[in-house]
Amino acid sequence: MQSTDVLIVGGGGAGCSAALHLALRGVRVVLLERGLVGGQATGVNYGGVRQQGRDPAGLPLARKSREIWSRISELTGSDVEFDACGHLKLARTPDEEAELLRWNALAAEHGLRPRMIGRNAIRAENPFFSDQVIAGSLLEEDGSANPRLLAPALARAARAAGAEIRENCGVTDLHHDGGNFVLTAGGRSLTAPWLLNCAGFWGGAIARRFGEEVPITKLHPNMLVTEPLPYFLRNSLGVVGGNLYLRQIPRGNIIFGGGHGESDEAIRVTRPRPDAAFGAMQRAVGVIPRLAEAMVIRSWTGTDGMLPDHFPVLGPSQTTPGLIHAFGFCGEGFQTGPGVGAVLSELVMDGATDIPLDAFAIGRFTDARVTG
Description:
The strands form six sheets. An eight-stranded mixed β-sheet has the order 6-7-5-16-17-18-15-21. Strands 9-3-2-13-24-23 form a six-stranded mixed β-sheet, with helices on both faces. It has a four-stranded mixed β-sheet with strand order 1-12-11-10, with no helix packed on it. The protein is an alpha/beta fold. The protein has ten helices and 24 strands.
């Protein structure tokens, strides 16, 4: 049986970031990923590095993560195509414009400085918008990155720092023996006093093993990409309500999404849905009419976890000392992944973090208490 300091289950952005931050502090870490790192939610999303529009409870974590994004190339030794291109959130009705104004006031309390853009100015700055767009809010420090590059870059850096990253190594048994966690994966047994549950949608099943039931459901964001088009769109775009998000990469392709895909019962196969894709296309053309002639060349989806209040589970277990959860990021975890890893390393090494986690506590779903 192999003994280590920290076991991590799940090789997405949060898990790989945690492995890196812990290894940099001299901790022995083994990360177990049943597929390839970044193979689920972290690697198949839109790629938005967005603070704009987040609930105030999530802004401190988003702010911490954004600071890490500013040095992500230095941290990982890789280019993950992070671009502080700005995130422009659009309003299409007066009520949506009021929502932008409300959020901007809250954002200022967290040190953010979004710029509200009215009807005339947003047309002058973005003449390709249709008459649907009546206002926008631009947060210039937000941006985008390549989701297929983030987790592998964090994993490579973690390995270089001394962490052990095992891919294609699913967990087949997991329990706590009263002193340590004992885990079987790839036919080998491992033990450690700390377990970080970073398993995405499947994190709910791990929590259940330790008496912590959460109402998590599967989430399959529906994504599409067009052929390369003449470059015209600098900002990453979203809309109030979240049913459309859209950005253009330097090569010219438009990456956009909206709606949800589907999966089989065991989530062995995920598929984009044609009706969701068509709806996203219609909304995209409604905002930017010139996209009507663009050819969609690929669509895809993956699996994340959704919770009823749209907040993740992040923080210590209430039943089992040494167990820390970080799962169910509700389609919004790409931006926060690097910061979540830093928070997890602080909880392990320092016993505390400066990020408020009460809104994310697993105890909001259960009255369980630490039992030993």
